[in-house]
Design a protein that fits this description.
The complex is a heterodimer of chains A (285) and B (322). Chain A is mainly α. Chain A is built from 12 helices and no strands. Chain B has 322 residues and is mainly alpha-helical. Helix content of chain B is 64%, strand content 6%. Chain B is elongated, with a radius of gyration of 29 Å. Classes of the chains: A mainly alpha (285), B mainly alpha (322). At the A-B interface, helix 2 and helix 11 of A face helix 1, strand 2 and helix 3 of B.
Chain lengths: 285, 322
């Protein structure tokens, strides 16, 4: 019927159908393109994901309050609170070692003391605590800080291996960061201590690197650079969670580390000294 | 009639499809140029500021072009082609501009000088030469470079070591061992707070740029074909022999240059009438001159001049249809 009508009107039905079809197709294509145009404008207004500011986490269960106090100069005042967080089967040994470390006198060399009977017991305890709960891991970190505070790791003038003390302390910090660093980034108990520990690790390893009176020792420096790159993700475009946390807290140190140059750890050194001015390698003297 | 209609329908089909496909390309390209990915894998927009600047520059270019040519789109497809060209230019300019800071203003001046105030080629009608496209591509590369530097936490275009100072092993010289050229900030680059994930973002922007340019060129070329089809359709309303004669008198290649594109139908008809009258008049004058030249046979002076006169007189008009 339609064909007959077209013929009666003197039109070519095939051409008319083609024209109508083309018009519909054009309308659809214009609509699709218009939607794409609007989409291209709308996507520009998509807000970026905001960085979430750290908030105080309210935990119903008992928890360690103000953990940084256990790492600072006044740690001795609250050290006894750590006993309650250690598993029952090692609580007695922990308590004895904690008592020993927090009353260590005479400022012995770090390397020598860790090789002593008490030092070896402490290292075994640190290994156990690192594989335990987060609170036990934190207790282990508090003990390492106390070792750093009560032993001498500043290079001696006459030592044959002047970097040994600092490198040994750096080893303890590195073991803890390797186990708990990435997991700590979003943990309200461990986040701030882990970021501070990364700074302290950089400072201690820098001391080891610069230990000789003349020249430097490359091994600790290269080890620190490799480990920090791995830990913080600074050698690739995507930072680790801990890397982002440290960037937000110690941005200048990280920027200097990433920028390259001769002294990558300088920013770590200055930031750690600001955080823990008494951790100078000579028992605070 | 049937063959001619089919040919005409096929021709219009080609032009309209080109315009519409160009529009879709520009839409997709605009979306890709408008997003970025941060280092957590989250998507976000590149912001309104850069697009507003791009749109402003594109508007300036469109106004300058309209003023110089005095033409306006006359039907839906032509309007759509104009909108497509405007948005493509806005997306591309927004995509290649540095998002903020002194670099952005430097690039704006460059674009104003080279793109906005550039007159289109009278013969081809092309808005952008290959030189301009090359400059826009170079600006995109520059933006990608500074985005890369920023994604690697290097906040300058480049760092140049000072020859002697950089080789001295003294730490206190660190601040003056190298010179940072073209420093910028994350805020100037419009980076998301988590930092830019360079590789996927670069891929999005590069593809978006290519799609926008391809869509722009396709829509512009097709719009020109569409205008030719419109003029052709008007001429074809004449009886077929007359239409054929008019198209021989005013070849399609000259339509754009003669200012037929973009005229409303009434003015287009008047313009064609005027052109036919003008060219016929010239043709008749020429024919008359040739006819009168037969007198020269009686006054042929001989020699070189006489030879040329004789050649003109002896020449025959070409056969019809050759």
């Amino acid at each position: 019927m339609a064909v007959g009508l077209h013929r009666a009107l003197g039109e070519n039905p095939r051409v008319s159908e083609t024209t109508t079809g083309a018009r519909n197709r054009n309308t659809v294509a214009i609509l699709v393109a218009s939607v794409l145009f609007v989409g291209a404008l709308v996507v520009r207004g998509i807000p970026p994901a905001r960085t979430v500011a750290p908030e105080d986490v309210v935990e119903d269960a008992p928890h360690i309050v103000e953990p940084m106090q256990f790492l600072g100069a006044g740690a001795k005042l609250r050290a006894g609170e750590l006993d309650a967080w250690v598993a029952a089967d090692r609580k007695a040994r922990f308590k004895a070692l904690r008592d020993l470390v927090y009353h260590l006198d005479g400022c012995p060399g770090t390397h020598a003391w860790l090789d002593s009977v008490d030092g070896q017991r402490l290292e075994r305890m640190l290994g156990e605590l690192r594989t335990g709960k987060r609170e036990e891991a934190f207790a282990a970190l508090a003990l390492i800080y106390q070792i750093a505070r009560a032993t001498e790791w500043k290079p001696g003038l006459m030592a044959s291996t002047p970097q040994a003390n600092a490198e040994r302390l750096g080893g303890l910090l590195q073991d803890w960061l390797r186990t708990w660093g990435e997991r700590s980034a979003k943990d309200p108990l461990l986040a701030e201590p882990a970021a501070a520990t990364a700074m302290l690790y950089g400072r201690v390893m820098r001391v080891a690197w610069r230990a000789p009176i003349v020249g430097t020792v490359d091994a600790p420096y290269k080890r620190a650079r490799t480990f920090l790159n791995e830990l913080l993700g600074t050698d690739r475009s995507k930072r680790t969670a801990l890397g982002e946390l440290v960037q937000s807290k110690n941005g200048a140190a990280i920027d200097r580390f990433v920028a390259g140059g001769d002294d990558l750890l300088r920013g770590f050194d200055s930031d750690a000294l600001t955080l823990f001015p008494d951790l100078n390698g000579t028992c605070g003297q | 009639m049937s063959a001619s209609s089919e040919h005409s329908a096929a021709s219009e089909h080609s032009a309209s499809v080109g315009i519409l496909f160009g529009g879709i390309l520009v839409g997709v390209g605009g979306i890709l140029l408008g997003v970025q990915i941060d280092q957590n894998g989250s998507w976000s927009g590149t912001g309104w500021a850069s697009f507003a600047l791009g749109a402003l520059l594109a508007l300036g270019a469109a106004l300058v072009r309209t003023k110089s040519q005095g033409r306006l789109p006359r039907d839906t497809l032509s309007i759509f082609a104009a909108v497509t060209a405007f948005l493509a230019l806005a997306f591309v300019l927004a995509g290649v501009l540095a998002p903020g800071g002194p670099w952005m203003f430097f690039e704006m001046f460059l674009i104003v000088a080279v793109v906005v105030f550039r007159k289109p080629n009278a013969e081809s009608g092309r808005w952008m030469s290959f030189g301009v496209l090359g400059m826009l591509a170079a600006m995109l590369l520059f933006r990608l470079w500074i985005a890369y530097q920023g994604s690697e936490n290097r906040w300058q275009v480049m760092s140049v070591d000072i020859p002697i100072l950089s080789s001295l092993p003294f730490e206190f010289l660190a601040p003056i061992r190298s010179v940072a050229l073209g420093s910028f900030t994350p805020h100037e680059l419009g980076f998301p707070p988590a930092g830019l994930s360079f590789a996927p973002t670069m891929a999005l922007w590069a593809i978006g740029f290519a799609l926008c340019i391809a869509g722009f060129v396709l829509a512009q070329t097709s719009a020109r074909e569409h205008e030719n089809d419109r003029i052709h359709a008007l001429i074809r309303t004449l009886p077929a022999p007359v239409a054929n004669f008019v198209e021989r008198l005013i070849p399609e290649d000259e339509w754009h240059e003669l200012g037929l594109h973009g005229l409303p139908e009434r003015r287009l008809a008047k313009r064609i009438e005027a052109l036919v009258a003008s060219r016929m008049s010239r043709q008749k004058e020429l024919q008359s001159a040739l006819d009168q030249s037969k007198l020269l046979t009686m006054t042929n002076p001989g020699g070189f001049a006489g030879g040329v006169y004789q050649a003109i007189v002896d020449s025959k008009p070409p056969e019809a249809g050759t």
